[in-house]
Structure formats: C-alpha cells, structure tokens
Amino acid sequence: MKTFPLSLFILVPLLLTPFFTPIPVRANESPELELTALIFTGTGQAAETLAALEPETVTAALKKTLMDKDPEARIAALDIISHMKITALADAVKAVMSDPEESVQVRAITTYPALIDAQAPAVREMLTLYGKAVGAENAARRSALKTAVGMLCHQTRQKSDVLAVLMKFYQDAPAEEKSAALAFFAELGGPGAATQLGETALNGKSEAEMEEAVKLLADWPGRDADTVLYILAAQHPDEKYRVRALQGYVGLIGRAEYAALEKIVMCRAALAVAGRDEEKRQIHEMLDPLLETHPEMRFFDGETFTGWEGEEETFRIQHGAITGGSLEKPLRHNRFKVTEAKYSDFYFRCDARILGEGGNAGVQFRSVRMQNSTEMIGYQADMTTDGTYWGSLYDESRRSKMLVTANPELIKKIYKPGEFNRYEIVCFGPHIQLYLNGYKTVDYVEDDKKIPAAGHFGLQIHDGPPSEASYKNIYVIPLEKP
C-alpha cells in the first residue's frame, strides 16, 4: 500500500465531505501517520487533527514533503500550503518552482503568489521568469507563469508601482509578445491601467495590439474604463474600433454599479456617438425607462426669469439664453443669476458659452449667496474663454481652489471655442461628476463631511475684462429637494 506523511492529509477536507466521526489526535503524536489509513478507516476531519498539532510541526512536515521523491506527494503538499496560505513556506515553494517534474513546477508557480506580498519587485521577478519562458517548449510552465503574474497584479495594493513595472515590460517585450503582455494591465485594473490600454488602442504599433487593447477594455468589469472607452468610441480613426468601444461602453453601463443619474448622462453620451440603428435601440432600451422614473424638469423657459432671482442689471435673456456680462465694458465684481430653489442630489445639464478675451464664468451648484456680497459659496463647474478650466471643479469662495483639474489634453480635443458646449453635473451624496460634451472630466468624492450637500444653482459671469457668458437648454432631474 502506498503511504503519505501526515502533512498531506490537510488535502482531505478539500476532496471529501466530512461525514466521519473524528478521532482526536494528541499533540505529541508522530507526524508520520498514514493519510490512507485516515481516509479509509473513517477517522475523517484532518483539520481537527492539525488543530491539535503545533504549527511548527505541520510546517516542518510540509517542508519535508516538498522534497519527497514522489511527485504526487510534492503536489499534494503544495495544495495544502495553498489552501492554508502558509506564508512561512514561501521560500520553500519558490525553490520548487524549478522542480524537475513539470506538473510540480506548475503547481508551485501558481501557489507562490498567494504566499507573498504582491509588491512591484515580486511582479518584476515573476515577469522576468515569464519573459524567459516565452518561446520555450514548456508551454505549461509559461502558462503558469502568466497566471502567476496575473494573480500578483490582481492582488497588489501598489497599483502605480506595479503599473510602471508592467509598462516597462510591455515596452521591452518582443513585437510578437506585446499583445499577450497587455492582459496584465487588465488584471491590474484601475484607471491608470485602463488609460494605458486606451493609448495602445489608439496608437498601437500593430493591428494585433490595438485589437487586443480594445477587446480588454470592452470586457472591463468595472467603471475605471468608462472614460477611456467613450474616448475610443468617439475619436478612434478606425470605425470597427469605434463600434467595439461603444459596445463595451454600453455594456459597462448595464453591468457596472452606476447610479441611475450616471446611467442617464452616459446613455445620452452614447447616443451622441452611436451611428447604427441597433446601437441606438440598445441605448434607448436602457435610457427610456430611466427617464420615465426620473423625468427632467425644464429650469429655464427661454423667455422669462421665472424660478431665478437677482442681478437683473447684469443678466438678460438673449436669443433664448440667460446671458451675463458685456463684450463692451469690464465687470468689477463677480455676478450670479441664482435659482430660487435648492437641490441636493440631481442631474443638471445646460449648454454654455463664454466669449471675450480673458473671459471667465461657471455653473455654481450646491451653493449659497454670501451675505453682504455679490459672491456665492460652493462648487463650480468652471469655464474660461481659452478653455483652460472647462470641465474642472472649483470651490468658489470657500476653499478657493481647484478641487479637480480636467485633463488638459482631453479638453483640447473636446472643447469648442466660441460655441455652446454641453455641461452636465451629477451629484449624489458626496459623489460629484462633471461631463463636458459627453466626456466625463471629473469624478470626485467629497471627504469633508462639514461641506453642505445641498444648495442653489447659480450662473456666473466673472469680474474682469469685457466678456459675456450665456446659458441655455437648462434642465434638472432632482432626486430630492432639501
């Protein structure tokens, strides 16, 4: 009869349903009891036996078994180590990664990541081993190493450091291996990895690289890839990639955890770039029910200031828009046209334009008027004539700083100088998002609980040189009024 050391019977709970009556084992019993005897004589529950043994005894027995001449015993020991996550045996497992038996190598390679801290040096070391295995005859070892790198990427908390390691590996990889290397970015996840895949999808050196990058992004499980996918859907020069990216974007709306208001703005953005009837139909299937349960309210009728207050000497209705300022004379103080009602959680949209050299304006939200002043206090979706601050989130007269500055390269591509640009604002709880012409430019979570989560909307014209700000097609979907 073939026998195994006690160290291996930890595997039993993984393979058998414990219907046996356990027989207690004393802590000082020999660790060389036979596994087969435990299984077939009905002593069962090996975990209880291990609980009675000293951890050092179990570790020593497993370490010894890793050097057993029988490959099956070594594999069984690795399974036990993996199941129990015995980190003290990480170095011993690492040594077995070079075992003469391929099956043992493979098991050791895929066991090792769970036993170590997934820091950048560990990822770099495993990538080096994977790089050496590329093109080798041992396909099973190469596949195991790829799996191990993916495991480390998935579990690391050092996203930015590991991203840098992956980018270096990708840059140095042979042309025929670059597509395969992209999978590690998907395993890492996060906005940085998604952005890198987006760059490859737009500027990859081969068709295979671009195709793989778009595929990985389209299958992305979380919301980190939504902005990248939308950029590809709207801007990729190749129609087939635009279509695939849009499919991924729409799929992400359906499967990721987005609030209803987020889904509304994302669906509208998708409709703006959808070219095929089938795409539009799929988007409307999500959007129309949302608008039925969250109807829009027109905030400005295009003719009167009903629902708005203040600053009638500065603001006027012109060509169906609320317009503030003048292109003929400078303004000494900031001025705001403000809603009478307050709002807390909402979706807001308007078309806005700023004219005049050096012009500055913005949309205030969750804001209030400052006493004895023309100022408002609160969040602002910023806008300037030169485009510098469009899409950015500013804290007006409170912290008086930019909370989030939009990506300047993105703004250069999407801002339309001298024209009306679509601003959309989504607020729910501490979460604030800004969208410019369909592109998400801000995704911010307020961490200061003292900041009010409700207030008025205000349309600003900033003090300074002659300039004019106009706002039209103003709508809101309120979730609640405070």
Structure, explained:
Strand 12 (431-436) and strand 13 form a beta hairpin. The chain is elongated and about 90 Å long. By secondary structure, the chain is of the alpha+beta class. The protein is built from 19 helices and 15 strands.
Q: Which structural traits does this protein have?
A:
482 residues; alpha+beta; eight-stranded antiparallel beta sheet; seven-stranded antiparallel beta sheet; 19 helices
Explain the layout of strands and helices.
Layout: H1 12-15, H2 35-40, H3 46-51, H4 55-65, H5 71-84, H6 90-96, H7 102-111, H8 120-133, H9 139-155, H10 159-172, H11 178-181, H12 183-188, H13 191-203, H14 207-218, H15 226-235, H16 239-255, H17 260-273, H18 277-293, E1 297-298, E2 308-309, E3 315-318, E4 321-326, E5 335-339, E6 346-355, E7 360-369, E8 376-384, E9 393-396, E10 401-404, H19 408-414, E11 421-428, E12 431-436, E13 439-445, E14 456-461, E15 467-478
Antiparallel strand pairs: 1-15, 2-5, 3-4, 4-15, 5-14, 6-11, 6-15, 7-8, 7-14, 8-9, 9-10, 11-12, 12-13
